[in-house]
Every structure is written in structure tokens, then in C-alpha cells.
Structure prediction request, 215 residues.
Amino acid sequence: MRTHFPLLFFTLSLLLGQSRPDPDPLQDYCVADNKGEFFINGVPCINPDKVSPSHFVTSALSKSGNTSNQFGFSVTATNTVNLPGLNTLGLVLARVDIAGNGIVPPHSHPRASEVTTCLKGQLLVGFVDTSNRVFTQNLKPGESFVFPKGLVHFLFNRDSREPALALSGLNSQNPGSQIVSLATFASKPPIIDEILKKAFQITGREVETIRRNLE
Ligand SMILES: *[C@@H]1O[C@H](CO)[C@@H](O)[C@H](O)[C@H]1NC(C)=O
Prediction:
């Protein structure tokens, strides 16, 4: 009798290798107890008897963020502090304000995929896959784009005068965010010059310049 080990193995590894969102909650809700003194994978819950509707509402995304920084963007996101009711639910909503010609520089979220909707302005968005292929698109208000989990992506406001606004949903309550330029050139303590010189094929002077510009 023929065995189907290779097929079985392949199927199993596909199933096991599947990327999963945050773990499912084991109760209806787990409203964050932000005063918790110990660390678990997430935030502990308050007593369900003490939960009120206000734990499930926030106006955190109602105001535009301050985009006066070198890149010209601001991200305001829901989290377990401003919206304690989202604890363990595996999602976040983020407001992204981008000044005229501002960018959200190439960055990645290690724990979440992201779908972004352009609400105002003209956005050039895109991501790079692991073979360094770039997928970009121009978004008009009402159009959405998805950035797969962990991949480097960016948003650019093509309009030099008008600010742009986008709303992003991410499938983790704590997606994490790593801006490529800051992670490499503005880490604390710094990555030694020798590594950056070789990685980016630049001189020590250029390393210094980039570091200074990113401060
Ligand atoms: C925005 O941030 C800049 C730089 O940090 C600061 O100078 C400015 O006062 C802020 N604007 C507002 C409206 O908070």
C-alpha cells in the first residue's frame, strides 16, 4: 500500500505555518485593567461586574494629530488605555494624518496585517514583499489597500498643499511598529558604523550625516 507521507507532511506544515492573529478571548470581553502590576500576554481584565459601556467607546481618533515632524505624519491609535474594551479582541484602529507631501516612512508591523482606507487627499501607498517586489497604488478617498503582515510599507501624500487622512485597521491589539530608517540609523545604542557602512554601501561620513538628519 502506498503511503502519502510527503503529502501529509506538506499539508501539516502548511496548517502549522499559518500566520494567526492574536489568540481568541476566553470570555465575552476582557476589559483592560491598566493598573496591573504583573505581565501576561496582553493586559489582565477588570471584574466583569465593574464593566460599563464607557469601556467600549473612545474619542481618541476624533482629533487630527500633530504632523510637525521631519516626516510630516502622525498616527493616533486605539489601545488598551484609551479603549480598554478592545483588550484581547485582536484589533486596533488607527488614524493617520499626513501633511502636504508628508510620508509615513517605510516601516513594518511585526504582529499585524493592515488595511488602510483613504478618507481625504491623494495617497500613494505600497509595500515590498520578501523578494523585494514593490506593489504600489494611488488611493483616492473611499479606496482601500492592504499591507500584508510584517512587510515593509509606506504612505505618501502626493499633494503638496492639502493634508491627507487615512484610517487603518490592524489585526492585533499591539501590532508594533518599526520604521526602517530609525531602526537602522537611530537605534539606541547605535549600531556600529562598520555594519551600516557595509549594509548600505556608504562611507562613515555618510553614516554620520544620515544619523544627524534623523535626530
Ligand atoms: C506640534 O509639534 C511641534 C513640534 O514638536 C510643536 O512645536 C507644536 O507646538 C505642536 N503643535 C501643536 C498644535 O500642538
User: Anything to note?
Assistant: Residues 66, 68 surround 2-acetamido-2-deoxy-beta-D-glucopyranose (CB under 6 Å). The longest strand covers residues 92-98. The mean pLDDT is 92.
